[in-house]
Amino acid sequence: MRVVLTGGGTGGHIYPALAIARQVTDAEPGSELLYIGSNRGLERELAAKEQIPFEAIEISGFRRSLSWENVRTILRFVRGVRRSKQLLRRFQPDIVVGTGGYVCGPVVYAAVKLGIPTVLHEQNVIPGLTNAFLSRYADLVAVSFPESSNNFPRAKRVLYTGNPRASQVVHADGARGLESLGMRLAADEKLVIVMGGSRGAKAINDSMIEMAPLIAAQPSGLKFVFITGQPYFESTMSKIREQLDAWPEALKVVPYVHNMPEVLAAASLIVSRSGASSLAEITALGLPSILIPSPNVTNNHQEANARWLEREGAAKVILERDLDGRTLYDAVCRIADDAIRFEHMSRMSKKLGKPDAAEAIYEAMCGLIRGQNF
Prior knowledge:
Radius of gyration: 21 Å
Mean pLDDT: 92
Distance between the termini: 20 Å
Number of domains: 2
Strand order of the largest sheet: 3-2-1-4-5-6-7
CATH superfamily of the largest domain: Glycogen Phosphorylase B
């Protein structure tokens, strides 16, 4: 199979594309891949780590207010479509897969104009601007949440597949995750992972600083791994030390985790933002979660994601404006110490998970290439 992948800006768009790439090469060794992105996002770096050839186009996003910059964006889009057609004619893909972000627009649009089968993947409940625009042209829109289907009224076909990131965590080795952290868990202990995204989140960090004395005073039974994000690590460590007479064995603070699937596989409970990739991983593992949506995202989509899990009984949502150390600590304890609630949330989380998401998308791609009528 020859596949062009496109999607960029943040990891939330790029990691699903890379998960699809991995599924394709696992299913069909010898497949050829090309990633088309921009030089502004993380996609060049992340594609290189996966040894996927990369080509760049220049593109920018529309501003939501009237601006002359939008005229320049239209011109960049036209040039981006022209450049994308050149790349697609040269590579001759069987299919083009877009996972959102502005760079996805001209690439998928060019593929449609050239008659190449196209798949979009939408990670969030509320679709991004680019995927909403492209959905009327693409052959298939794959969605991570069943509620998303109603948000693509002009799509030819919408398929609920889940997020392909989920497929990467289900086979991860939790024992290796614990070993990488230098931790051991007794049979009756639960591991709580607290994270704010790859670069961290100040509000979550501040609440964890306030939580540290509560963790130090707690009875045994819970251990915490707190992932600060590299930019916040030194200052956060300093502030936590100021709160403590002695460092508690139950608390591990790290700036970043490179083997996140393995660490998540060792967890009992997750405290996290509610980005789509994180929720895919959490539900694939059947983990209860406390979700703190970022208020600084387009269309407030993280709260929409989080509320879906909460309605289904898999998560507790705490808005950032209501967050502090005591509130978060009490929420953790109420879930971890209540065996019936913990088991119910675990079961509902697992029910929502789509661990075969990458395979489902791959099978849909194969069907489109074979010309199957969905």
